[in-house]
């Protein structure tokens, strides 16, 4: 596996777990601890995939995905929500907001990595 993934997460323990798992499977990982920093990193580094928490300081995940998807230079980047929101209707709300995928916390390492792999853009599509 390879590719550059930006993880935007304000909870240090969750951030460290995701970084550990992704790096162990060969991904290059960039991090940000709030939505504003995450948006800046997305603009400057153009990752292959963005994993974004919903509840964060400065700018929440909904605002991050709205800004990403409204920017023609960034709108093609898949954005996966990783959130504690797991009530009925939360998945639909997240997807309608513009996220391309949705994963709930607490993180199950096997399922998380399987979903990340499925969310990564194809490397054979000429990108």
Describe this structure in words.
- It is a single chain.
- The protein is of the alpha/beta class.
- The protein has one domain: Response regulator (Rossmann fold, 3-Layer(aba) Sandwich).
- Helices cover 41% and strands 18% of the residues.
- It contains five helices and five strands, in the order βαβαβαβαβα.
- It has helices at 12-24, 35-45, 61-70, 90-96, 109-119, and strands at 4-8, 28-32, 49-52, 79-83, 101-104.
- The protein has a five-stranded parallel β-sheet, with helices on both faces.
- The longest helix is centred in the N-terminal third of the chain and has 13 residues, at 12-24.
- The two termini are 16 Å apart.
- 27% of the residues are buried.
- The model has no long low-confidence stretch (mean pLDDT 91).
* Shape-level CATH architecture: 3-Layer(aba) Sandwich
Strand-and-helix sequence, N→C? EHEHEHEHEH
Strand order of the largest sheet: 2-1-3-4-5
Poorly predicted spans: none
Share of β-strand residues: 15-25%
Number of domains: 1
How many extended strands? 5
Short description:
The chain has a five-stranded parallel beta sheet with strand order 2-1-3-4-5, sandwiched between helices.
Give the SSE map.
Blueprint: E1 4-8, H1 12-24, E2 28-32, H2 35-45, E3 49-52, H3 61-70, E4 79-83, H4 90-96, E5 101-104, H5 109-119
Parallel strand pairs: 1-2, 1-3, 3-4, 4-5
